[in-house]
Fold this protein.
Amino acid sequence: MQIFHTLADWRAVRKTIPVTASLGFVPTMGNLHVGHASLLTTSRQENDLTLASIFVNPTQFNKPDDFTHYPRTLEADLALLSDTGVDYCLLPQEKEIYATGYTYKIDETISHQLMEGKHRPGHFTGMLTIVMKLLQLVQPQRAYFGEKDYQQFQLIRDMVTSFFLDIEIKPCPTIRETSGLAYSSRNNRLTPEQRQLADQFARIFHQSSLSNEQLITALTACGVSVDYLEEHEGRRFTAVNIGDIRLIDNYKLNSSVSVTHTGA
Ligand code: AMP
């Protein structure tokens, strides 16, 4: 696996990739787990070459503390990328990515008023801006995003359509632990007691026959604080807080398969 610390090094190599070779792209913020690995494996299956990026993007964090405490585990991440057979790893630096500051931004005007957009002011603008920058730098044929962050996937797909980028945006199913809890870098910050509560949250949230109100009541009763629990376009979405750890999840309603386990 080739690792790039500067944009110039990567761009020089990008120019050497023949137009006949397809490049798949998996952007991440690191602290990689089996959820990320599934995106990487899908990209490897569907493309000649795969590039993963690791960049903890400061502009998408609406709380400075969340950015500071975001887990950074570069050594283990590089081992996972290498084991997964990734060809290239881009490790961009903030000073290069935001060389002109945070002066040009991608704003979306509808989804940013809903759910994650409403509860995390500025989050989607920061996320769309970094994804646009990375798509321009990587120039992939396909890019892979997890359905765990479903609003994010929809926004990126629609941004690519709006700006006529010739890139396929591919959704990948959420990978879960046996309790149904979605793998997330934030799970690592849970204490053992909070971890049990997170498993309980997942079990309750996946009771798809209950109404939103019943789910909110059940979650609140066991000590989970619910930011929102809503349905849109046949999916149920939620964000909850367990202590100071915020977890999000969603699933398709009326679907016979709503949980993808890794068997872990
Ligand atoms: P992150 O590093 O959290 O920014 O995530 C990078 C990509 O991995 C995003 O497209 C996420 O939606 C995806 N992802 C994170 N967790 C999971 C999971 N449990 N299953 C599938 N995809 C995931």
